[in-house]
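tool_call: predict_structure(chain=1)
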Amino acid sequence: MPVISGLTDPKMVKYFHQGKSDRWVAERFGISVQVVSARRQRLGLLRKPISRQVNEALATRWKIKAEKNLGSHHNAHAAKSLKIYLRMRLGDASLSD
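tool_result:
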């Protein structure tokens, strides 16, 4: 990928593992958050690994609609509660009180 802003792949990996946010990287290099997010995902650096693990595990067993404005909302509350419970049991530190 061309490096116009000065953000190289090794720097992106370094900042990701240091816990820097996409917004922080974007501001530092003068680029948009969307560019940083797309670059991070292309490098295979994914945020919220426990949340992603829970969603993928549930999707293998049940068809729970997590997207907004898609179909019925009747199972949304139960599904959300289940996801939060599973993330908590797996030790997701990104959950707020």
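agent: The radius of gyration is 17 Å. Proceeding to next step.
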